[in-house]
Amino acid sequence: MTAVPALPAWLLVLLATVLSTAVAGAWWRHARERVLDLPDDRRLHQVPTARGGGLGIAAVLLAAAPWLGSGGVAFALGLAVTAGAGFYDDLRPLPPLAKLLLQALGAVPVALAWPLLPGLLGPVLGVAAAWLLVIALVNIWNFMDGSNGLAATQALLFGAAMALFAGAGTPAAWLGLALAAGALGFLPWNLPRARLFLGDVGSHALGFTVAALALRAMQGEGAIAPWLPLLLASAFLLDASLTLLSRLARRERVWQAHREHLYQRAILHGASHGRVCLAYAAWTLAAASLAAWLLAAPSAVAWGVTLAWLFSGIMCHALGGRRWPRPGTDPRKDA
């Protein structure tokens, strides 16, 4: 049985937002001279900035675990391991392989609790697919956390939309509201001017919860269709995946930090952090509107439109790549 909160949803969202903001503020006062993200040629910021502000988001999400029913303990355990690995990396950088192993460990409980499409894939492949999904989204949110407000805004929109589509009072709806509230509480520290970064603790917590929310919402009676979270996360999925494939094709070390994502290239060519955040938010809001329209459509139509949406995203990414070439490849600057 799921523990139903005694307070109304709007009050819980308000309290969760305040908690996220307060924890981030307390951490900022400690970290602003001790735990700094320093500028270098692979980052977009120009001044040393405190990192680790996602602690407040992690706290909110852990507090929401009791509302998830039988998978709540698995979610809390996995989140603690995954976000904990990120927090340790914020304080003292971990080797990439060690961090990946901890992410893989943290993904296990959620994959076992909520396999991906077990009716189609079977129990073993369903667990394996869920495990890979969690690891992938943790890293995607980590890769895409490089511009003010971007990662938190995308998580906020994903959580709010999933809460709406999952239905009031469902475990997925409560988790979606917690995700949205945690991200909302952090944003004043990061947008429009960044006084505090999410850090790996924040990006890991967001990516982990996006994956867990998608998996939880596809379980049981009233489960959502898989195309829906695919649409809602398409902005990050497309930019991260296409950039990764491009780097693999050039045989680059994909685990190293870089400035080749489309959002990074746009900022390097003069776009503001706020405009980039707004553009990605507009894409996700359009995807959510499309998803709402597709809810009553036959499955084949919904999947066809989703694939067409993803293809249009690939075309937009290609056009954006021409407008904002990779660092070091712009002939206008190299001439």
Automatic annotation (TrEMBL):
Give the subcellular location.
Cell membrane
Task: Give the record's keywords alphabetically.
Answer: Cell membrane, Magnesium, Membrane, Metal-binding, Transferase, Transmembrane, Transmembrane helix
Q: Sorted alphabetically, which Pfam families does this protein's record hold?
A: Glycos_transf_4 (PF00953)
Q: Which InterPro entries did the record assign?
A: Glycosyl_transferase_4
Annotated membrane topology: Multi-pass membrane protein
Positions annotated to bind Mg(2+): N142, D200
Q: Which residues cross the membrane?
A: 55-88, 100-117, 123-141, 224-245, 277-295, 301-320
> Taxonomically, which superkingdom?
Bacteria
In the record, what terms sit under GO molecular function? Answer: metal ion binding; phosphotransferase activity, for other substituted phosphate groups
- Cofactor(s) in the UniProt record: Mg(2+)
Q: Which GO terms describe its cellular component?
A: plasma membrane
Which biological processes are named by the entry's GO terms? cell wall macromolecule biosynthetic process; cell wall organization; lipopolysaccharide biosynthetic process
Q: What is this protein called?
A: Glycosyl transferase family 4
